[in-house]
Amino acid sequence: MLPAEREQLIITFLKANKKATIHDLATEFNVHEATIRRDLNKLEQYNQIKRTHGGVVLNNTEVWDELNFDDRETSYYHEKVAIGQHAVTFVEDNDTLFIDSGSTTIHFARALTQKHNLTIITNDIHIATVLKSSSNQVIVTGGVLYKDNYLLNGMITNEILQRFNPNKLFLATPALDLEKGVTHFNDALAATKIQMVKQAKEVYVLTDSSKFDKVSLYHVCPTSKVDVLITDQSNTDIDWEAYTDVFNKIVPVKVNI
C-alpha cells in the first residue's frame, strides 16, 4: 500500500473511531509503528490530525470530504449567489476564462449569461449547460464524469487544460487557510486545479467564508498566487485583518437574504 493511500485510510479510521493510538493504527494496517509515526507526521504537517496524550484525533479544521453538489448548492446559498454575481464585474468582453467546477462557480456562470464575446473553458457539465443559452463560446474539457458533482476530471482533463492560456481563472475550493493557501482533500481534483492555476494569467478564488481557516491534504496554490479573493464576511470567527494582510486583494460582497 502506498503511503498516500494509507494516510487516507487513517483519516477514515479516525473519522469512524474518533481517536486511536499508534499501536491501534499499526495493528489495523499491519505495519510497523515507525511507519505509522511517519504517516502521522505528514498528516500533522497538513493540520489533518492532532496528537493527544496517548493517541491521535482528527483536527476539526481539516476538510477530508464534502457533500454532493445538490446538497452543497443549498448550503450558504445566498452567500454563493452574491459571490457569483459580484465576480462577473471582473469579466470584460473578449476575456478568455477557466471556470472551475463548484457550487459557487455555478452562480458565477448563471450571471455570465449576460456577457458577450467570451471564450469559456470548463470541466463542469452543469456550468456548460447553464452557458449554452448565452452568446459565448463554451469549451468542455472532457474527462471522467463524477456523477454526483457534474464535473469532469482525470488525465484527459489535465491534458486538455494544458492547451489553453486564459486571461482569468475562477477557482472554487473547500478549504482556505492563511498559511497553507488553497488546498483540497482529493488528489485527482487538486491536480486539475493546480493545472488551471498554472495556465491562467490571473486567479480569482470564489468561496464563502465558511471555508476559511480550513486545510485539506493536497496543496493547490499559495495565497500569493491568488490575485483576487471574492467572499462574504458572514463568518465572525475569522481574523479578517490577517486575511487582508496576506491576500493580494479581498473583495467582500453584500449578501441579500
TrEMBL record:
It comes from the Bacteria. InterPro entries: Carb_Metab_HTH_regulators, DeoR-like_C, DeoR_HTH, NagB/RpiA_transferase-like, WH-like_DNA-bd_sf, WH_DNA-bd_sf. GO terms for biological process: lactose metabolic process. Residues 3-58 form the HTH deoR-type domain. One of its GO terms (molecular function) is DNA-binding transcription factor activity. Keywords: Lactose metabolism, Transcription, Transcription regulation. This is Transcriptional regulator. The lineage of its organism: Bacteria, Bacillati, Bacillota, Bacilli, Bacillales.
